[in-house]
Amino acid sequence: MGEPADVPGAVQKKKKFIMVVDGNPKDALTTSMILQNFGYSVTTVKSAEEALEFLSIAVPSLVVTEFILPGMNGIALMDRMRLDPVVSKVPVVVQTSYADPSGRDRCLQAGCFLYLRKPVAGEDLYRAVQSIVERTPRKNVRVSTHLKASVDGTGTGAEFVTVISAQGMFVKTLHPRPLGSTHTVSFILKNKIIWVEAMVLYTYGFGDESAKDPGMGMKFISIEPADLALIQAYIQESFSAGAPAK
Fold first, then answer.
1. Closest Cα partner for 154 from 183, 180, 194?
2. What are the Cα distances from residue 17, in Å, to 14, 20, 38, 215?
3. Are 198 and 179 in contact (CB under 8 A)?
4. Whole-model pTM?
5. Beta strands 168-172 and 215-223: pairing type?
6. What structural domains and CATH numbers belong to the chain?
7. Burial (CB count <10 Å: 0-12, 13-18, 19+), residue 214
8. Cα–Cα distance for residue pair 227/163, rounded to 1 Å
9. Sign of torsion, CA 91 95 98 102?
């Protein structure tokens, strides 16, 4: 059964590939880590020239580029991309510290999908990328994780929350419960035991889809406000995990 767009799904083995173009090493690393934490495969380059060289070898699902670059700028990069019939179809998001208000119009005229001013919040970047590269964009931010879980107090040691959002979670298990059934799920988050009542919305078993882990997508039915706040804080922290401090 397919997963609803707003409920976390199983981890897919084949990740979508995004190229980040930024001459600022700190900004490039920050953007790269945020995107990787959202489950995307990322390659970073520091100039438009390097980007074009890479694009001649591999075609990403999305290019996220700074406007200001050493050598050619972001607009020149988009102009060169349009000359290639394959690369011209790759969407471009401009994420920039460029202060001139005319920059937005110039980039949009050059063909970028979105123009974002730095610093860009992790959630805003997530929604921007989702809206462009995903067939069914998710309404809620979700992050990959690995939290040992117990369903109805019968933990087998082989059940884990592998994706979580403020609305639900995906529980990796060899024994998915029936669709529509409601269960008590517990897991440890930041040294605190979280208890939720959750309903099974979809399941994957062994052999159902080769790119999916066996388990079940569950929607939160009941959760304590303090526990929900802890989950939300965990998601926010996960945006920039591994990125350099500001």
1. 183
2. 9, 10, 12, 25
3. no
4. 0.71
5. antiparallel
6. 17-133 (3.40.50.2300), 142-239 (2.40.10.220)
7. middle
8. 16
9. positive
Exposure string of 39-78, with b = 16+ CB inside 10 Å and e = fewer, is ebebebbbbbbbbbebbeeeebbbbbbbbebeebbbbebb
Residue the block writes with tokens 């994780």: 145
Q: pLDDT tens, 186-212?
A: 999 989 999 999 999 999 887 665 567
Specify the pLDDT at position 47: 96
Helices (H), the chain: 25-37, 48-55, 74-81, 102-110, 122-133, 225-239
| Burial group, residue 112, by CB count within 10 angstroms (0-12, 13-18, 19+) | buried
Using CA atoms, how far residue 19 sits from 29, 48, 65, 158, 237, in Å, is: 12, 11, 8, 35, 23
Neighbours of 22 (CB within 10 A): 26
Instruction: Provide Rg for the chain, Cα atoms.
Output: 20
Which region among 2-6, 133-137, 175-179 has the lowest average model confidence (pLDDT)?
2-6
Query: Crossing angle, helix 225-239 and helix 122-133, to 10 degrees?
Result: 80
Mean pLDDT of 123-150: 84
Look up residue 88 and give its DSSP letter.
G
Residue 78, amino acid: M
β-strand pairing of 168-172 with 142-151: unpaired
Average pLDDT over residues 68-80: 93
Q: What pLDDT, on the 0 to 100 scale, is given for residue 11?
A: 47
